[in-house]
Amino acid sequence: MKELKCPKCGNVFKVDEADYASIVSQVRTAEFDAEVERRMAELHERQVAERKLAESKVEQSFQTQLNNKDRELGKKESEIASLKSQLEAIEASNKSALALAIADKDKKILELNSTISQSDSKLQLAIMEERTRANDELQKKDAEISQLKSAAELEKNKAQIHEASLVKQHEDEMRVQKELVEYYKDLKTRMSTKMVGETLEQHCSIQFEQYIRPVMPNAYFDKDNDASDGTKGDFIFRDSEDGTEYISIMFEMKNEMDTTATKHKNDDFLKKLDEDRRKKNCEFAVLVSLLESDNDLYNTGIVNKSHVYPKMYVIRPQFFIPFINLLVQTSKKSLEYRKQLILAQNKEADVTNFENKLNDFRAKFGRHYEMASKKFDDAIKDIDATIAKLQKVREELVGSENSLRLANQDTEDLTIRKLTYRNPTMKAKFEEARKADGIPADDLM
């Protein structure tokens, strides 16, 4: 039991440990509330200061970037102004030079007019000389015209001779091609199906090494052995210049024996060839085929299938080397444009990367700011919840204070007369004790 003294009346009364702890907690509540409010104010001020510091840093960073942009724009404007001044100076110089030239011409014309007026005889003489010179030039022109006519006749004769030689050359080539076709037909009758396909591949490979390799020693031409995607072509041709690839071709060689029961068509292999071209990142796709040997469309030259699949062609083996040369020459013409395009794309990539980095920084900062703001709001909510809980505890403590006040009031109202009311035995005991101590009976209140 603990003894407590009332600060108002001075009475001393005893309370148990639970009541004593409750009273002590009540005394601490006011100081605890003040401490919580003080710490809440400090936390709020610190968070406001941190947020203002972060905002000032971001504003300073963006201001620095804006200042850099303004300086760059100032430099550009100064350069433009300098160029404009130079252009104006050049225009002024040109105008002055033109004015001087016009004045000089006018002066010469005046001098000529004065010379003509001074001497008519000299003018007549000049006219005669001019006529003589004109007649000489006319004779020279007639001689040149006659020479040109004879040269034209000579060129016409040469053209006729050349035309006859081209016709003969074409007939010889047609005869050789027919002999080659006959050779392949005869060869196919003496080989198996697998040997037919391999022989066509070997033929193209040998042709490349004989005619293309000497003029393009660094070109890549080899079997496509990568079947990781499920399919592969026969040959891949690539070439580059100054590190820039300007041509790439996926080749597929197809042949079959004349005795094969099921005859294939060239169109049967175009879809797979286009898929192989895309997978191996090649620009062109070429089917070297001996299929449909009686089809005049494929026998007369290069067949363009780009309307079916992009940059797709079908050729006979005799056009293998000429077609490679044709594609190489065509692609080389666009090489300079590709280099310029790559350079422009790199420059654009630099600007894009800068903008992407800036946007990425903005996005990250915004995301981090949102996360910090969310955490700040969560902390405020937690603090509000804690304050609400503390307020509830305070209300409960205040309620317990009221109970203690009533208990104290009950204690103060407690007297011996009330205790001995209707209890004669206890009343007699108290009277005897008081009489023994010499206290009047009326003092038992």
> How many distinct helices?
9
State the distance separating the first and last CA atoms. 25 Å
Strands, count: 8
Overall mean pLDDT: 76
Evaluate the radius of gyration: 56 Å
Written as H for each helix and E for each strand, in order along the chain, the element string is EEHHHEEEHEHEEHHHH
Strand content: 5-15%
Helix content: over 70%
Structural class by secondary-structure content: alpha/beta
Shape: elongated
Can you tell me the residue ranges where pLDDT is under 50 for at least 5 consecutive residues? 189-197
Note the main sheet. 6 strands, mixed
Largest sheet, spatial ordering of strands: 3-4-5-6-8-7
SSE topology sketch:
Layout: E1 2-5, E2 12-15, H1 17-118, H2 120-189, H3 193-212, E3 220-223, E4 235-241, E5 244-254, H4 270-279, E6 284-289, H5 296-299, E7 303-304, E8 312-315, H6 320-333, H7 335-413, H8 416-419, H9 424-437
Parallel strand pairs: 5-6, 6-8
Antiparallel strand pairs: 1-2, 3-4, 4-5, 7-8
Helix pairs in contact: 1-7, 3-6
Question: Any overview of this molecule?
Answer:
The structure is a single chain. This protein starts with a strand and ends in an 8-residue tail after the last helix. The chain contains nine helices and eight strands. The chain is 71% helix and 9% strand. Mean pLDDT is 76; it is low at 189-197. The protein has 445 residues and is α/β, with parallel strands linked by helices.
